[in-house]
Design goal:
Strand order of the largest sheet of chain A: 2-1-3-4-8-7-13-9
Largest sheet of chain A: 8 strands, mixed
Distance between the termini of chain B: 68 Å
CATH topology of the largest domain in chain B: Pyruvate-ferredoxin Oxidoreductase, domain 3
Number of helices of chain A: 12
Oligomer: heterodimer
Largest sheet of chain B: 7 strands, mixed
Largest interface: A-B, 62 and 71 residues
Number of strands of chain B: 23
Structural class of chain B: alpha/beta
Strand content of chain B: 15-25%
CATH architecture of chain A: 3-Layer(aba) Sandwich
Shape of chain A: globular
Strand order of the largest sheet of chain B: 11-10-12-13-15-14-21
Number of helices of chain B: 20
Distance between the termini of chain A: 69 Å
CATH superfamily of the largest domain in chain B: Pyruvate-ferredoxin oxidoreductase, PFOR, domain III
CATH class of chain A: Alpha Beta
C-alpha cells in the first residue's frame, strides 16, 4: 500500500463524460491493499465502467461483506454511499436496500471466503430471488486478512504458500449462479482489463441478478508455484469464450467486426452488447449448455472466462413482488397509513 | 342424564367460571371453541380464551381454556377447571384430575366407561356425541367436524347460552354460503335439543346477559402488532417462520393486501420476504432501513440468537430496525408453543461489544398496536434497533382489548435525515457528529445529493465524519456518544404506568407485558387479605427515572416475571444500581401463563415472612 494522500488536482485535459465527470470523480480513497493486488485492478475496472456508462456516482450504492475484497468499496466511487456490512451477509443487506429504493444502481463486492463459505446461503438466495444488482466476487482462493488459509473455491490439489495441499473439493460459484437462475453470469480475470471492464458495464446495465466471478490473484498468499489462482496459472489456463463491447442505446455503432464472429444482444434497458466470439460454438443464451461446457472445460483444467450466460429480458425481485414504481423510501403517511376511519371499521369487525 | 347428580351438588356460579376443552390437534375443534367464546362475548360477558397447543400438526392433545369473568379478569385464573369438555381419551386421566371439587365433566358417552375412570366429587354429564353424529352424517370428515358443533349445542343448553348469538356468528362466519350456515345451525340444534330432552338444563354454571364488554374488541396481539406496523408505515417485512411469531408476519401480509395495494395500478406498497433464515431477515431489515424504508422482522428466542451479529452492527452503525420478539420457552427443541418472558436480557444486551438496546413491553393488543406503530418512530429517531417484546400469551390468543385508535394528524417521525436541499444550502454534514447534544447524529439516504452527504457505513472503525479510523480516541468518543443517545432514549420510550394501592403502603410490585391482568387481579385479592401494594408497570427499557423513584419510595418491591432468572430484576439491579436485597423475585416459568392465584400466594407468603420479628428484637 502507499502512504501518500491522493492529490486533489488533476490534469485539466482529463476527459469528461456527458455528465461532466472525469474518471477521478469515480475514484475513492487510496487503497490499503498489498501492492500488485488483483483487487485494485478490479476497483480500477469498476471506476472505468461507471465512467464509461456515465452513471451519476451518487446514484450507485456499493455494499460489501468482510475481507480484503470487501474493503475495496472504500477505494472506488467516493461520492457513493457505501456499506461494509457483516461477513457473508452483504446479499441480504443489498436485498433490503434494493427493496427500499429501486431507482439506485446496486453494486455488491465480495470475496470467495465471504461468498463461498460463510455467506454461501445468502449468495444462493440473492441469486434465486433475482435481486437487481451486480454481484462481483473477487476470487483469489485464500483468506488474505487472516493470513493465507484456503478458501472454498480453491481447487482440490492446490498448494498453499507453505506447501499444504488442499484436499477439499472446490465450490464453483459460476455453476451455482447458473443453476440458481441468475440472469447474467460471467467470469473474468483481474489481469484482463479489456475483458473485465465491458463485463462490469454490461452487468451494471442488466436489470436482474448479475454475477461476475473475477479471478483475482493474491500476491501475498496465493501467487506461487502450485497455486491455481496465481497470475501465471490463470494466464496459462484461461479460455476466453468471448469479449464484448457495451454500447449504450443512443450511440451509433461505428466499430467494424469480422462477419460471423459477432453477436448482438440487446438488453432490456436498450443497451447493446456486442459479443466478439472466440469459441464459435458457445451460445450465451443456453443455460444448460453453459453448465455442461463449464464442467467439461474445468475437467480439462481450463478456466473459462467471458460472458457465460445472459437473459436479455430478465425478471427481478420488484417484478416478482409487484411493487409500486415509487421508491418505498419516498412514500409518506398519505400513501402508507390507512387512517382512523379504516381502523374504526376494523374495530367494528372485531366485536 | 346426570350420572352422579344424587351424590354431588355442583358448583353454582353465574358469569364467573372456567371451561376447558380437551381436544385432539387437527380435529377441527378450534373454530367451534372460538364460537363458544365469541358467543359469550356477544352476551356482554368478558371471556379470555387460551390455546394450549403442542408443537404438532395433527394427533397430539390440544386444549382451549376459556375464562368467563363478568368482573373483567382477563388473566389466567389457575386452580383447576370448573367445567371440562373432555373430547380426548388420550388425556382423560389428567383432564379429570384438573376439575375442581364440585365441578362438571362433559364427555362423549358413546362407549361405556368403567366407574373407576370417574371421580365421585364431580358432576358427570355424558352425551353420546359419536352415536348422534354417526347417525346424522355418513361422511367421516363431516362426522368429526359436526361433532364439535353438536357439543357446542349441548353446552348452549347446559350453560343457558343465548343460542341466537351462536347462530348470528355462524351466519357472519359463512356469509354468502347459506347451505353451510344451515348445516351448522342444524348440528347446533341437534346437540341443544338432545340436552334439553335428556339432561337437567341448566347446570350450576350459567351465563346471563350482561353489559360488561362495552366497545372492546377481540383480537390477537400478533395481529394488532402487525396492524401497528401497517399504520406505522413499514414497507419491508423480512421474516423466517418460527412459532409463536409467524402469525405476525402473516397478519401483516393480510392487512397489506387489504390496505396497501394501489387501487389504480394494483401494485403493492409493501414487500414481504420469507427469508432463508433469521440472519437474512435482519440483514434485509437493516439494508432497507439504511436506505430509508421502514422495515421490521418478527421472530422468537432462537431467531434473536441468530440475529445477534447484525443487531450489533446496526447498533454501532446506527441503523434503525424493528424486531418483534414473540417470546416462548427456550430453544427449538424446548417448548416452542408455551409462553414465557425469557428474552429480556438477550435482547437488552444483544450482540458483541458494548451494546444496549431499546425494549418495549406491550401488555395487550391495544399496546401491541400502539407500540408497533411507535417502534418505527423510535427506530428512526434513535437510529437503532428497537425490540417489541410480545409473548405467546399476548401474541397468539384472542384478547379483549380497548378499540384501536389512530389520530389522522399523526405524522411519521423520520428522525434526523439531512435532505438534498439542506446539503445544497451548505449545512455541515458529518455522519457521527453530535450537533444537537442529544447523542443522535444526522444521516442521509443513499442517492440524496451529487457531491455532498455520501458516507461509508462501517461498524466502529471510523471517526465522527465516518472516515476510516482505528484510533482509540475516535472509538471512545463514539462509544460515549452512543451512551448519551441511550440517555436520550429514556425520555422517548413509553413511561411506566403507576397504580397506587387503595391505602398507603411500603410495599410495591413491578411487572410488565402479559403479566398485567393477573397482577391487577392479584392486587385485588391481596387487598382482600389486607396486603396493599403499589403497582408499577414498566413499559420500556432504558428505564424511565420513575422506576428508580418507585423503588426508592418502597421498603420492599416484588418483581413479578415469567422466567426463571428474574431477568427484569437483573436489569433493574444492573442499570439502576439498586440493592438486590430490596427486590424480591416472584417468578413463574413452567410455560403456562402466570395466574393471579400464583402471584397472590407468592407475595402473601413473602409478606408474612417479612412480618416475623427477629427473636433478638422481640425479647428485650
Amino acid at each position: 500500500m502507499t502512504f501518500l494522500p491522493k492529490p486533489k488536482l488533476h490534469h485539466p485535459s482529463l476527459a469528461t463524460n456527458s455528465l461532466g465527470y472525469t474518471r477521478r470523480d469515480y475514484e475513492g480513497a487510496v487503497s490499503t491493499l498489498c501492492a500488485g493486488c488483483g483487487h485494485d485492478s478490479i476497483s480500477a475496472a469498476i471506476v472505468r465502467a461507471c465512467f464509461n456508462l456515465e452513471l451519476p456516482p451518487h446514484r450507485i450504492a456499493k455494499l460489501s461483506g468482510i475481507g480484503c475484497s470487501s474493503k475495496t468499496p472504500t477505494y472506488f466511487l467516493g461520492a457513493s454511499h457505501g456499506f461494509n456490512s457483516v461477513h457473508g451477509r452483504m446479499p441480504s443487506v443489498v436485498t433490503g436496500a434494493n427493496l427500499a429504493n429501486r431507482d439506485l444502481v446496486y453494486l455488491g463486492v465480495s470475496g470467495d471466503g465471504d461468498s463461498a463459505s460463510i455467506g454461501i446461503g445468502q449468495f444462493a438466495h440473492v441469486m434465486r430471488r433475482g435481486v437487481n444488482m451486480t454481484y462481483i466476487v473477487e476470487n483469489n482462493g485464500v483468506y488474505g486478512l487472516t493470513k493465507g488459509q484456503f478458501s472454498a473455491t480453491s481447487d482440490r490439489g492446490a498448494k498453499s504458500r507453505r506447501g499444504v495441499v488442499n484436499n477439499d473439493a472446490a465450490i464453483d460459484l459460476i455453476a451455482m449462479a447458473l443453476q440458481l437462475g441468475a440472469t447474467f453470469v460471467a467470469r473474468s480475470f483481474s489481469g484482463d482489463k479489456e475483458q473485465l471492464v465491458p463485463l462490469i458495464e454490461a452487468a451494471l446495465k442488466h436489470e436482474g441478478a448479475a454475477f461476475i466471478d473475477c479471478i483475482s490473484p493474491c500476491v501475498a498468499f496465493n501467487n506461487h508455484e502450485g497455486s491455481h489462482t496465481s497470475f501465471d496459472y490463470v494466464r496459462e489456463h484461461n479460455l476466453a469464450v468471448n469479449y464484448l463491447d457495451v454500447i449504450a442505446g443512443r450511440e451509433p455503432i461505428t466499430v467494424q467486426y469480422a462477419e460471423g464472429a459477432v453477436e448482438t444482444v440487446k438488453q432490456h434497458d436498450g443497451s447493446v452488447l456486442r459479443l466478439r466470439r472466440l469459441a464459435n460454438d458457445y451460445d450465451v443464451h443456453d443455460r444448460i449448455a453453459a453448465m455442461t461446457y463449464l464442467q467439461e472445460r474445468h475437467a480439462a483444467g481450463e478456466i473459462v472466462t467471458g460472458l457465460l450466460y445472459v437473459d436479455p429480458e430478465p425478471d427481478d425481485l420488484h417484478h416478482h413482488m409487484n411493487t409500486v414504481a415509487t421508491p418505498f423510501n419516498e412514500l409518506d403517511e398519505t400513501a402508507l397509513c390507512p387512517g382512523a376511519t379504516a381502523l374504526e371499521k376494523l374495530n367494528a369487525s372485531l366485536r | 342424564m346426570l350420572q352422579s347428580a344424587e351424590r354431588v351438588t355442583g358448583l353454582q356460579r353465574v358469569n364467573d367460571f372456567v371451561v376447558k376443552f380437551a381436544n385432539v390437534n387437527g380435529s377441527g375443534s378450534a373454530s367451534a371453541n372460538a364460537l363458544f367464546a365469541r358467543a359469550i362475548l356477544r352476551m356482554g360477558v368478558p371471556v379470555t380464551p387460551r390455546n394450549i397447543f403442542p408443537s404438532n400438526i395433527q394427533g397430539l392433545p390440544t386444549w382451549y381454556e376459556v375464562r368467563v369473568s363478568e368482573a373483567g379478569h382477563l388473566g389466567a385464573r389457575g386452580g383447576g377447571v370448573d367445567l371440562m369438555v373432555a373430547m380426548n381419551p388420550q388425556t382423560w386421566t389428567q383432564d379429570i384430575a384438573s376439575i375442581v371439587a364440585g365441578g362438571y365433566l362433559f364427555y362423549d358417552s358413546t362407549k361405556p366407561m368403567p366407574p373407576s375412570k370417574f371421580r365421585d366429587d364431580i358432576v358427570v354429564i355424558g352425551v353420546p356425541l359419536t352415536e348422534i353424529t354417526n347417525k346424522a352424517y355418513s361422511d367421516s370428515r363431516q362426522r368429526q367436524l359436526f361433532k364439535n358443533i353438536v357439543y357446542l349445542g349441548v353446552l348452549s343448553a347446559l350453560l343457558e347460552m343465548d343460542v341466537s348469538e351462536i347462530e348470528k356468528l355462524l351466519a357472519e362466519q359463512f356469509r354468502g354460503r347459506d347451505k353451510l350456515v344451515a348445516a351448522n345451525v342444524q348440528a347446533l340444534h341437534m346437540g341443544r335439543d338432545y340436552a334439553q330432552k335428556n339432561l337437567d338444563c341448566p347446570i350450576g354454571l350459567t351465563l346471563r346477559r350482561a353489559d360488561a364488554v362495552g366497545d372492546r374488541i377481540f383480537i390477537e396481539g400478533n395481529a394488532a402488532a402487525a396492524l401497528g406496523a401497517v399504520y406505522g408505515g413499514a414497507t419491508v417485512c423480512a421474516w423466517y417462520p418460527i412459532t409463536p411469531s409467524s402469525s405476525l408476519a402473516e397478519a401483516f401480509t393480510r392487512y397489506c393486501n387489504r390496505y396497501r395495494v394501489d387501487p389504480e395500478t394494483k401494485q403493492n406498497k409493501f414487500a414481504i420476504i420469507q427469508a432463508e433464515d433469521e440472519l437474512a431477515s435482519i440483514g434485509m431489515v437493516i439494508g432497507a432501513a439504511w436506505n430509508g424504508a421502514r422495515a421490521f422482522t418478527a421472530t422468537s428466542g432462537p431467531g434473536i440468537s441468530l440475529m445477534q451479529e447484525f443487531v450489533g452492527l446496526a447498533y454501532f452503525a446506527e441503523i434503525p430496525a424493528v424486531i418483534f420478539d414473540v417470546q416462548r420457552s427456550g430453544p427449538s427443541t424446548g417448548m416452542p408453543t408455551r409462553t414465557q418472558q425469557t428474552d429480556i436480557l438477550s435482547c437488552a444486551y444483544a450482540s458483541h461489544g458494548d451494546t444496549k438496546h431499546v425494549l418495549l413491553f406491550p401488555e395487550d393488543p391495544f399496546e401491541c398496536f400502539e407500540f408497533g406503530a411507535l417502534s418505527f418512530d423510535l427506530a428512526d429517531r434513535l437510529q437503532t434497533p428497537i425490540f417489541v417484546m410480545l409473548d405467546l400469551e399476548i401474541g397468539m390468543n384472542d384478547r379483549l382489548s380497548k378499540p384501536l385508535v389512530w389520530d389522522d394528524d399523526r405524522k411519521m417521525d423520520r428522525g434526523k435525515v439531512m435532505t438534498a436541499a439542506e446539503l445544497e444550502a451548505g449545512k455541515d454534514f458529518g455522519r457521527y457528529l453530535d450537533v444537537d447534544g442529544d447523542g443522535i447524529p444526522y444521516r442521509t439516504y443513499p442517492g440524496t445529493h451529487p457531491t455532498r452527504g455520501a458516507f461509508f457505513t462501517r461498524g466502529t472503525s471510523k471517526d465522527r465524519r465516518a472516515r476510516y479510523s482505528e484510533e482509540g480516541p475516535d472509538y471512545a468518543e463514539n462509544m460515549l456518544r452512543l451512551l448519551k443517545k441511550f440517555e436520550t432514549a429514556k425520555q422517548l420510550v413509553p413511561r411506566p404506568v403507576a397504580r397506587p394501592a387503595q391505602q398507603a403502603t411500603r410495599l410495591g410490585a413491578i411487572y410488565f407485558g402479559s403479566t398485567s391482568p393477573a397482577m391487577n387481579e392479584a392486587e385485588q385479592m391481596l387487598g382482600e387479605r389486607g396486603i396493599h401494594l403499589d403497582l408499577l408497570r414498566v413499559r420500556g427499557f432504558p428505564f424511565h427515572t420513575d422506576v428508580k423513584s418507585f423503588i426508592s419510595e418502597h421498603d420492599q418491591v416484588f418483581v413479578v416475571e415469567q422466567n426463571r432468572d428474574g431477568q427484569l430484576r437483573t436489569l433493574l439491579v444492573n442499570e439502576l444500581e439498586i440493592d438486590p436485597a430490596k427486590l424480591t423475585r416472584v417468578l413463574h416459568f413452567d410455560g403456562t401463563p402466570i395466574t393471579a392465584r400464583f402471584i397472590t400466594d407468592a407475595i402473601a407468603d413473602n409478606v408474612d415472612s417479612l412480618k416475623i420479628v427477629p427473636l433478638r428484637k422481640a425479647v428485650p
